[in-house]
Design goal:
Length: 116
Amino acid sequence: MGFRENLKAELSYSGMLVKELAAQTGLKKHTIDNYLSVRGRMPAADVAVRIAGVLGVSVEYLITGHETTERNTSVHFAPEICRMARVIEKLDPDHRKIALSFIETLKKHEDSKQSS
């Protein structure tokens, strides 16, 4: 697979809309639509880096569909988990602590309901 197919797959996996990717990368929606079209072209390196950064993957992955790492392990999360991580990552450290505390409290509440 090439850049176009890998970009489509990552957008689908993450649950992100093209317009959201455009907003987060500072690109126009039309530009990203061009990358996704059948006749789409490869973006410039700096643009590919921005796209990969927002999607949480490497440029190498977007181009080849593979990562080159010392360990060949990968962890995939449900799309909503990926979206939550992206949002939380953008929070300042104090708000991250609050978000983590909220999630932990929610999990404790869920566990106590299941125990009952």
